[in-house]
Design goal:
This protein is α/β, with parallel strands linked by helices. It contains 13 helices and 27 strands. α7 crosses α8 (240-249) and α11 (306-316) crosses α12 (327-341).
Length: 559
């Protein structure tokens, strides 16, 4: 990582860091970390934390660690670890040194728990979970001491050893630190720092029968790694006194400080890992990387780019005020990126046959069209014009409505990059459905409109004989409500958008798309931005709609 030329403060955390550097706190070093729990896939909220932690380290010439907070083996898996590693790399960041795991420090954390027992600051408690809640008190009433709080050091050491050896059953006891049961902060009322779990761990195997709590492991892992600025979201603000208490009462090698920022809350979205897992487990979506999911892997499969997500995180900024960000901001970020960087192409999603009656059967004419109207470096692509063409069904009306800018019976329209055609005859089947248009083309309109010539508009098209078959998946927002969790009388599942995925088969794309690769982005002219699905093949070409050309939801909301 290299230090950027400018270190102008951009948020309150950066201002704190610059003051620390000026005062030579932490020796002027900046070491951050991104510490996800490997119990699910990362979502867009994690992207904000990734960009902040890694971006801060880059800005100040420091380093950022990737550390898995793997203290809950029953809910964790290697699948989640692999996906998180992939997501961080895809976003464009590289961690310092090796990947780290809290489980790397289990022995040290155990030894520090023993240290607290010997100091008379930790005890083994036999209260069950219900009793512990009763003794803890409420927000307005103090708690009361456990009857096991005054056990001797020797007794606590012996009991903790039994917990460690696996001779005590799960749920029979826990290790708590002795702080203050009357504290106004419930997190300081003798919190649990170790519990018994007879579970196989994906990193340490069956070595441990006890596992540290998040609060105990987190700060101490920061201290071991010499983290200078432990940046987390606001829900951990009430945990900071405990973070500091443990740091101050243990012989840790460094003194990290915790700072909190507002998490990312996005409308039309949920980011609860439990509820995202429910969507997956109950098959409301295809999987964690379903393009409708707010996971980073889902956004990637849908066609979002690393740059668009990083730019989005810059747009929303870093503050201490909770709020809800409009999904339109994320969609705007990807539109801006793809408008500048995605090559253009034509794809007809609901084909209507057009026969050019005055163009000879078997002949063809090739046109060269710019791959991007504003970027000549992208080059050109070739499209074929012939007798048998396809246009969108929605681009034709037998009787043109007012201000109609497409094709209608007896009227003319320009085919993008080719000729002006006129509809001379409409062919229908026995049910009255339009199945074919008989049209003529004007050779004098190749790339120009002769003086006095008027066409209704410009539409896209493909040559039926020189186009490639494909499937197009029209993805939209997963929920119909801006806050699908607001109605406590209903499940968030009740607000799943039935139109969040529309699969179109029998689509035809221009021949330049025959050799595309997964995750390539395109603008389908007049249709939106699309990407090649990860599972797409040359024999089964699949395009996912990333986003429409304009904010269609804004129009819907305006009525």
């Amino acid at each position: 990582m290299t230090k950027q030329d400018s270190v102008k403060p951009t948020n309150f955390i950066h201002q704190i860091i610059e003051q620390d550097i000026e005062k030579n706190v932490h020796g002027g070093q900046v070491i951050t970390r991104f510490p996800p729990e490997p119990n699910g896939y990362l979502h867009i909220g994690h992207a904000k934390s990734i960009c902040l932690n890694f971006g801060t380290a880059i800005k100040y010439g420091g380093q950022c660690h990737l550390r898995f907070d793997d203290t809950n083996p029953e809910k964790e898996s290697q699948e989640y670890i692999d996906s998180i590693i992939s997501d961080v790399r895809w976003l464009g960041f590289q961690w310092a040194g090796d990947i780290r795991y809290t489980s790397d420090y289990f022995q040290q954390l155990h030894d520090w728990a023993v240290y607290l027992i010997k100091e008379g600051k930790a005890y083994v408690d036999d209260l069950n979970a219900e009793q512990m809640r009763e003794y803890r008190g409420t927000l307005t009433e103090p708690g009361k001491n456990s009857p096991y709080r005054d056990r001797s050091v020797d007794e606590n050491l012996a009991l903790f050893e039994q917990m460690k050896d696996g001779t005590r059953p799960e749920g029979s006891c826990v290790l708590r630190v002795k702080i203050d049961m009357a504290s106004p902060n419930i997190n300081m009322r003798d919190p649990v720092i170790y519990r018994i779990r007879h579970a196989h761990h994906h990193q340490s195997g069956d070595q441990w029968k006890i596992y540290p709590s998040y609060d105990f492991a987190h700060g101490q892992s920061d201290a071991i790694e010499q983290i200078t600025h432990s940046i987390c979201t606001l829900e951990f603000e009430d945990h900071r006194p405990l973070y500091d208490w443990l740091i101050n009462n243990l012989p840790v090698p460094s003194q990290p400080k915790q700072y909190e920022f507002a998490r990312l809350n996005l409308n039309y979205t949920i980011t609860s890992k439990r509820k995202l897992k429910q969507l997956v487990d109950e098959k409301h979506v295809e999987g964690w990387n379903d393009p409708r999911m707010p996971t980073i892997s889902g956004l990637r499969r849908r066609g979002y780019t690393p740059a668009s997500i990083r730019n989005f995180c810059d747009m929303i900024g870093v503050t201490r005020s909770n709020g809800i960000v409009d999904m339109a901001m994320l969609e705007s970020a990807i539109r801006d990126d793809l408008d500048a960087n995605a090559p253009r192409a034509m794809c007809v999603t609901r084909p209507l046959k057009v026969t050019i009656t005055n163009f000879a059967e078997g002949e063809e004419e090739w046109f060269e069209l710019a791959a991007h109207p504003k970027d000549e470096s992208m080059g050109h692509r070739r499209v074929s014009f012939g007798r048998n063409l396809l246009i969108e069904q929605e681009d034709f009306e037998e009787v043109a409505p007012r201000k109609w800018k497409r094709l209608a019976a007896g009227e003319a329209v320009r085919l993008r990059g080719a000729y002006v055609i006129r509809c001379e005859e409409v062919i229908k089947n026995d049910a009255g459905d339009i199945i074919e248009l008989k049209c003529t083309y004007d050779p004098a309109t190749k790339g120009v409109n002769p003086e006095g010539y008027k066409a209704n508009g410009v539409i896209h098209w493909v040559n039926a004989d020189h186009s490639v078959p494909c499937e197009v998946r029209l993805y939209d927002r997963l929920f119909t409500e801006a806050n699908p969790e607001s109605d406590k009388s209903r499940s968030f599942l009740d607000f799943i958008n039935p139109e969040s995925l529309v699969v179109l088969t029998g689509c035809r794309a221009e021949p330049s798309l025959a050799e595309v690769k997964p995750e390539q982005n395109f603008q389908f002219e007049r249709m939106g931005y699309f990407c090649v699905d990860q599972n797409s093949t040359s024999d089964n070409l699949v395009f996912n709609r990333t986003v429409t050309l304009r904010d269609s939801w804004a129009k819907i909301q305006q009525g």
